[in-house]
Amino acid sequence: xxxxxxxxxxxxxxxxxxxxxxxxxxxxxxxxxxxxxxxxxxxxxxxxxxxxxxxxxxxxxxxxxxxxxxxxxxxxxxxxxxxxxxxxxxxxxxxxxxxxxxxxxxxxxxxxxxxxxxxxxxxxxxxxxxxxxxxxxxxxxxxxxxxxxxxxxxxxxxxxxxxxxxxxxxxxxxxxxxxxxxxxxxxxxxxxxxxxxxxxxxxxxxxxxxxxxxxxxxxxxxxxxxxxxxxxxxxxxxxxxxxxxxxxxxxxxxxxxxxxxxxxxxxxxxxxxxxxxxxxxxxxxxxxxxxxxxxxxxxxxxxxxxxxxxxxxxxxxxxxxxxxxxxxxxxxxxxxxxxxxxxxxxxxxxxxxxxxxxxxxxxxxxxxxxxxxxxxxxxxxxxxxxxxxxxxxxxxxxxxxxxxxxxxxxxxxxxxxxxxxxxxxxxxxxxxxxxxxxxxxxxxxxxxxxxxxxxxxxxxxxxxxxxxxxxxxxxxxxxxxxxxxxxxxxxxxxxxxxxxxxxxxx
Length: 506
Known about the structure:
Elements: E1 15-17, E2 32-36, E3 39-43, E4 46-47, E5 50-51, E6 55-59, E7 64-67, E8 71-72, E9 89-90, E10 93-97, E11 100-104, E12 107-108, E13 117-121, E14 126-130, E15 133-134, E16 140-141, E17 144-148, E18 151-159, E19 164-172, E20 177-180, E21 195-199, E22 203-207, E23 219-223, E24 228-230, E25 235-236, E26 246-250, E27 253-257, E28 268-273, E29 278-284, E30 297-303, E31 306-312, E32 323-326, H1 342-378, H2 382-505
Parallel strand pairs: 8-14, 15-20, 25-29
Antiparallel strand pairs: 1-32, 2-3, 3-6, 4-5, 6-7, 9-12, 10-11, 11-13, 13-14, 16-18, 17-18, 18-19, 19-20, 21-22, 22-23, 23-24, 26-27, 27-28, 28-29, 30-31, 31-32
Helix pairs in contact: 1-2
């Protein structure tokens, strides 16, 4: 692969490993990644149960790795000049904001009760903690953080006591103020290690993730204007449950890579057409491929005006430090499906028919005036003009009948739409009830699993006690035998003593 033109040699919609020159960063997963100006930044992560604190940079032009040498922001309360590394962190999120990288949440040795927002200035290489205000979320790992304009939408995760979350918080990056969002309808079940994306700067999409015992493959949508949750119906390929996957959006396509269910990784790269809500499988890798891993990262990068996907790291039986690239084929952009509705379509048809009628009437009178004013010029008699007027009136009558039919059809469709809306409302209520029961059952199952685990531990401890009792019994039996043997020997030896006393009496 030629260094300067490596991206031009790629085939479409296929993952290709990048040949790296020089040293690579250590393998890892559950790190954070972002792309700035043709450079991929990797921060933190975990390997073999140990959190990492380094920041690595991959240059997409030279295809080489380098370490970002950081220094604490001197004179600020959040650091001192002697500190050269970020706190070792795993399970965090990273957002690019101007020339800064913002690191949100994650697990580290100095984790506080509230969620911490750190920054890395990629121009000065300074880092520190940003003081935020408002309703600051609790500290957490495995959350999603999605940038929408100048706001970060935070959803879900797992707090430091392993409580699962499904709350929504918004961080205003202009004021650094947190706000907790009150939502309506049925939210996603509490989860972590899911994927999130934004559609049309209005709809937040949540896909997959897991609880302590369940892996999800559901898709949820939050309308950021009404703050209403819904679970839209999708089409296309069936998707398997997964957590620890990564997602990135290019135009109206949401690419989902990797993930797994603690037993096996997900080898397929999925694409959700967000304008039609249709799932499709883009490509499939081998089961043990690094792209079939949990805790990997995926970013999009623009090189010479064309967008590419970049993947790094992950764990699937072994930790990875490879970089993979994909050249996605451009998709046709259509009007988003979620901005359309049958009611809007019927209203549009009514407006169109009314406009056609008014335009026809206007055209009719214009033609009539024109013909009356020019009848003498064209040499037509009054009867000819009258015949033409009658013909136009007949065409107008036919057009009016057609418009009346369209209106009747619109009215009929409106009734059907109202009926469907009523049915949908009833089904939504039933679905909410079933989902509530399902959440309750899942909670009950989790509690039962916890009790079973406790009972298993108790049984194991009882078995250990029984083993000790049996050993004591065997030991006691052996002691009894020894005592019996000693007593027998004593009795045998005591007869000689009496004989000795008898001899003296003689």
